[in-house]
Amino acid sequence: MHWVGAVSILCMILSGWAIYNASPSLPFTFPPQLTLGRWLAAGIAWHISTMWVLFVDGIAYLLYGIFSGHFRRDIRPLGPRAVLRDLTAALRLRLPHQLGHYNAVQRLLYTGVIAVICLAVVTGLSIWKSVQFGWLTDGFGGYPIARGIHLAMMFALLAFLAVHLVLVAVYPRTLLAMILSTPRASESETAP
Amino acid sequence: MKRPPALTQKQLAPELNTLQRRGLIKAGLSLGALGLLTGCDLSTHAGIDAALWAMLRFNDRVQAALFSPTRLAQTYPASAITKPFRFNAYYEEWQVREYDPDNWRLSVSGLVTEKSAWTLQQLAALPQEEQITRHICIEGWSQIGQWRGIPLHAFLRRIGADLRARYVAFKCFDGYSTSLDMASALHPQTILALEFLGKPLADEWGAPLRLRIPTKLGFKSAKNLQSIEVTNTYPGGFWEDQGYDWFSGT
After folding, report:
1. Cα separation of A61 and A76, whole Å?
2. N- or C-end of chain A: fewer Cβ atoms within 10 A?
3. How much is the CA Rg of chain B, to the nearest whole Å?
4. Which chain B residues are within 8 Å of A144, Cβ to Cβ?
């Protein structure tokens, strides 16, 4: 589920860049050769194709997270004091990394990124269907603001990706767990 | 004296097995990644092109299902009108075509009973409605404008159109074209506009007659109309034929 989601989000970001480039609301554009689709029509075709992958994978993940207890047990944020403690330890490079066990900083980041993806999907829906889901568009303060939030969520995802990839590079053994599915903490302690 | 080896082959076997398995997983992963990369790189690849077109058609069906024939686009007070209003077409503003007031006619064809062409005076005599709505471009930007004209549903009934037909196609004398599904064509806010900002349409705003449909993206609101056809054959359109999503509903 992680990888289907990751690839679909990457496709959404890169095709989103092709759409953004058609009418940039900030004073820069993304290099066309990095975008998915390269021009507006192809970018939109990719965007509204891969959105279904993200949507189905996202719903499956949320249902799994809620009903398996994964969110409650592993993802639920532990509060500011725990975050401060673990963040200080991490910055001093004294925070042990245990597979299958997320520290307070990770929990906060993962909760945050789930919220960011949800907001990106919902604002996306509100600008794709600003009449049919007009109540949703109004809820975000109207079409231009919803569009701005949608773009901001893309930048938030990029920021998360940067941190996430650096940490995976620092702890490469987590990559195997991400690929194969996360082992329980007890298994990881005995693993070679 | 020969010393025994620190590790025997037998002792190493489990580790070797693990390493071998990792190698296999790695190989599988790189193959998978390669598949994804080629998928992303070859947007001009025929197979991927066909898949994207198929997804566009699927999205058209979803959008038609989401479309409500009665839900109205938000309307705004006159103070919300965007000034200055942005010109947009598939060509630059200096290339705008002027219309010939003496010879311009709106022709109607296809599945209609009254096929005679309309003059501007005849159209101006029909009941008109006004709207201040948001025009949302497929590029993402948007602006609020004010249009006044004939509700398309009233016009289609007037010309005896077969309202069970699937499409209404529009052709413009600037070379542009587009088409609507019948449900969207019959929406109460879909109008054949004769006025913009309280004045007869200027050339750059689509004189003398344009489509204005706030339940679709801006490129569907065709300017400089020349003919309307009611048909069951998919008509496509200028941008739609190049890959813009056909339904493009808002």
Report:
1. 15
2. C
3. 28
4. 142
CA distances from B140 to A47, B34, B49, B162 (A): 14, 33, 23, 35
- DSSP per-residue string spanning A107-126: HHHHHHHHHHHHHHHHHHHH
Q: 3-class SS at A33?
A: helix
Q: With CB atoms and an 8 Å threshold, state whether A129 touches B249.
A: yes
**CA nearest to A21, candidates B41, B139, B218:** B139
**pLDDT score recorded for residue A185:** 44
Tell me the domain boundaries of chain A.
1-56, 63-181
User: Tens digit of pLDDT for each residue in B160-198?
Assistant: 999 999 999 999 999 999 999 999 999 999 999 999 999
CB atoms within 10 A of CB A42: 21
Q: Do residues B60 and B245 lie in contact, with contact meaning Cβ atoms separated by under 8 Å? A: yes
Q: Is B21 exposed, middle or buried (0-12, 13-18, 19+ CB in 10 A)?
A: exposed
| Per-residue confidence (pLDDT) for residue A52, from 0 to 100 | 97
**Residue B155 gets which letter from DSSP?**
H
Q: How much is the average pLDDT of A43-70?
A: 96
> Could B142 and A144 be called an inter-chain contact, meaning their C-beta atoms sit closer than 8 Å?
yes
What is the token pair recorded at B99? 């219309």
Closest C-alpha to B173, from B220, B212, B123, B208: B208
Coil, helix or strand for A22?
helix
Segment A64-118, tens digit of pLDDT: 999 999 999 999 998 899 999 999 988 888 887 777 788 899 999 999 999 999 9
Residue B39 distance to chain A (closest CA, Å): 10
DSSP H/E element including B66: helix B46-66
Whether the predicted pLDDT of B18 surpasses 60: no
C-beta atoms of A42 and B245 within 8 A: no
Identity of residue B215: T
CB contact under 8 A, B244 and A41: yes
Model confidence, pTM: 0.84
